[in-house]
Amino acid sequence: MKNIYIVGVGLIGGSFALELKNIFNDYNIIGIDISTQNLKIAKQKNIIDSHAEINDITNAFMIIIAVPVKSIIKILPKILEFISTETLVIDFGSTKLNICKNLQTHKRRSNFLAAHPIAGNEFSGPDAAAKGLFTNKTMIICEKNKTNKKLVDLAINIFKEMKMNISFMDPESHDKHIAYVSHLSHISSFMLGKTVIDEEKNEKNIFDMAGSGFESTVRLAKSSPKMWTDILEDNKINIKEALDDYIYNLNNIRDLINDNKFDELELELKKINYIKNILNGINL
Fold first, then answer.
1. How many CB atoms lie within 10 A of CB 159?
2. What is the pLDDT of residues 227-241, one digit of tens each?
3. Contact call for residues 162 and 115 (beta carbons, < 8 A)
4. Could you tell me the pTM of the whole model?
5. What are the structural domains, with CATH classification, of the chain?
6. Residue 192: per-residue pLDDT
7. Number of CB atoms found within 10 A of residue 48's CB
8. Residue 6 dihedral angles phi and psi, to the nearest 5°
């Protein structure tokens, strides 16, 4: 069992493959991807050693699935049919509840580990893959108790070898919290981009006048539309709740400005400013 399969050789899957090459340097890293161009680039960049299709999976030591959520839900049960009792299968989907629910009664459920690396950037594809992407980032693991302990320990040792922090959550909590701290920020970025594009018909104005604040806020709008459509659909209940809260706060700020209540506005912004302490780990 010297084969490690990477299903989806983009930013996350490709970066993880590069890290695995350091840890398991005598194993075969085999890529699976619907894009032949992605596989070609991944091979040229030495991210993978060869490529295959799902039906070709044999002697699998480990299988990493890093594709959009809807694709994970579709192909994961099939992939589990190709493995032995000792194979570790990990998905890196950005939502967890429906993925886990879909496998509750699968005969190979104990071989599967539901995980979500809180890592990445606005780029996609194997060209964006890089070593060090996961360093000091958090790996969230869900339903640890439903995975074979030996395989859980193997996965955790790999994540720690990559200098990742480990966190455990149930799928429901994961999807709710991630809607606020990740999914909402991507929606905000896309909608800020849309607002500016709709208003500024002259693209040169956007290029000339956009400062670092705009660029850093809207950079997430460069992310894969396909991936984010899948995420928003799969986690739509939590995302709708997050959007309701966000819209309420936007309306409140608008009303304070409209009513010339700038002293109250400043107090509100001061309270919100506390977020810098949280992000810097102060008082945690």
1. 21
2. 899 999 999 999 999
3. no
4. 0.87
5. 3-169 (3.40.50.720), 173-279 (1.10.3660.10)
6. 85
7. 29
8. -115, 110
